[in-house]
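User: Fold this one for me? It's Capsule polysaccharide export protein.
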Amino acid sequence: MLVSPAAYGAAARVARRHGILHLHEPVDPHGLLDHAGEIHELGQGEIGDLAALRGLVAMRYVSADHGRRVDGREVARRLIEEWCYYDPFTGRHTTIDRILALQALWRRIIDANRQIGACVGMSLWKRGRIANFFSVPPTHIPFVRWASTAVRRCARQDKAIATWATRMPSGLMKQAYNANVPIWRVEDGFIRSVGLGSGLQMPASIFVDRHGIYYDPSEPSDLEYILATAQFDTQLKIRAAALIDHVVQKGISKYGRSDGNYFHDWYAKSQGRRILLVPGQVGDDLSVVKGGGNIGGNLELLQAVRQHNPDAFVIYRPHPDVTAGHRAGYLTEDVILTYADYVSTGGSITDMMAAVDEIHTLTSLAGFEGLMRQRKVVTYGCPFYAGWGLTTDRGEIPTRRRGRLLTLEELVAGALILYPRYVDPLTLIPCEVETVIERFGDMRAWRPTMLMRIKAMQGRMKAMMAR
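Assistant: Here's what I get for Capsule polysaccharide export protein.
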């Protein structure tokens, strides 16, 4: 096989004369090397170095009668000693190991994206960011409006459809099933942004789940499979432990970080009783609908918590989307105080977690965040973090699928490192979770747009009308 950028010329003529395949368009060198036995290269080029690093015979010629074998050890030495490397996110000097790890991450993401033929159910306002997650250089996976169009396209290409899990077009599942087209569900990640998704802040992390979705316990998800089967090696667990420390010290939660200045005026009111935090949830959120079990919403959760803990000091904290007026699930203060002792709407929930004894939740991510802060967590539904030996579970858990006992580091490794995808909100290229956490302190990445300001005003008006 001849690989040459020139479609015509002496080499091309010789190749045609002898029936040799000639590639003259851009091609992935690793794809060629996977099937190569020897490489013969004219001049200094990348493919000869890559072949030598693989241990293949690589001959480099300066003329037709003068060539030498490329030494893989010499190539490695040059890469380590003669090149300077810069971290694309910080601009600072870094090591070749760091660059290789990033390139391996990018390769895995691009290879996965090449299996997707169309995106459907993606909100218009976030499509620009979704395109960053689904990049297939030099372009991205196309957005399609109609389910039937996506199914036909992907059936023809033998590819999957990526759809936002909560915005799946009507009839998509049935049409895709009949055409034998896989459906991959997309959702916001657990460390998402500084600002609410309902307030139109762009996500810095998503999940792309090939089997289900993490909040629906009726069927296995990729996250559940990871937690049930992954071999968490020592290096990964050390990384997860450092990540936990980072998250706790910086006050990181799904929608931002704490400034650490929240005053707990309710602490003295508890008068030494056990303090329970009950995080409210969005009433029509699919994690409540799918994972709530026999409990139908915030009021029933409060009733259950009080029934099981008659003497405790119960603090109810409404969901920020509900408080902002964007989503359903609002309860009046009179109703809340029938079962709770205090309603908390100010400050950061991560600051509260440091002062409470227990967190009682239906399926809220606050339970997972509480585990990272060494709080006792009691679940009344079936969140993704229940059933692994770290929580007290009052809801129905699929124990046959979740019979494995995990450490906190293993749970965090699965949920924050292995399962999600991350994009740096400044450079807009794929990154690791640690980079996103660093960006939580950089307000350049989260400047509010005009659309976000309008949405915030709309939310305040809706909240006032609801009251």
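One thing worth pointing out: The mean pLDDT is 89.
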